[in-house]
Amino acid sequence: MAAAAALLRQGSVLAFPTETVYGLGAVIDHPHAVARVFELKERPRFDPLIVHLADANQLAEVWTHVCERTRRLAERFWPGPLTLLGPKTDRVADLVTAGLSRVAVRVPAHPVARDLLLRVGAPVAAPSANRFGGISPTSAEAVRAEFGDRLPVLDGGPCSVGVESTVLSWTDAEEPVLLRPGGISVEALTDALGPIRIPAPDEQQRLSPGRLAKHYAPRTPVGWNATLPPSPSRGLLAFRAPAPPGYGATEILSPTGDLNEAATRLFAALRHLDRAGLEAIAVEPVPEEGLGRAIMDRLRRAMGKGNEP
Fold this sequence. Notes:
By secondary structure, the chain is of the alpha/beta class. It is 29% helix and 16% strand. It has helices at residues 2-9, 31-41, 59-62, 68-77, 94-97, 111-120, 140-147, 186-193, 259-274, 292-303; strands at residues 14-16, 23-27, 50-52, 82-87, 102-106, 124-125, 166-169, 177-180, 222-224, 234-238, 249-252, 280-283.
């Protein structure tokens, strides 16, 4: 842990675990390290990064103002998989926010991430540790498969949530807007805030990571099982058991149909099917409730446009 924190403080890029997915981290005070994150990911500069904090006390370092409503929300859901947008300070470079005036921030709950961030003592920008548009990694092995020996990886075991954080925009002057469904369900946020506006998929794309029409995608084409019937040359990503027979390879997200388990296994299952030499991957829809909303968002973006089940 001490060596990993020293690498970040010295301006290196490091992959580390969070409860959602593994992140590709760089301290925001090192512009060359942040630029290296974009280079490693092959990420376009118009896609903003999420900044990770050790605790909410660091908000004053990255936000010029913290409204009382946002503070209460952070107290309820941090540490955890909720990302909030706030007006950035001059310390946050335009490269981090893609030139936008607000920066996305969260406090991760993974004990290794929290220990690391406390030791670093500075905000760390960290998108998912994979090439841009690809499948997010939920294990150190997945990061190594993606980048080999191009960067150090801090192994904290498998991620417990398995999909990225929920991104919410909310200030004193506006209504809550869901920019990306994720590890905190809409139901939990609605219980805390009341009604939340969910924008159309192509609205406000630049405000938040993960809003491009094509994202979280394997190299193998993906489609709904209704249009990709069983074939030995196709794989199946099934929601629950029993899975329909006749596919060349099958991954079941949750034998019992548990959405939390399904979210945890989503990206790993897609990776397994992507390595199976298939012509296509058929996907079963999941119920759009709780974490199912985040799962369906990732599956739709893996397919691209025209992706209704």
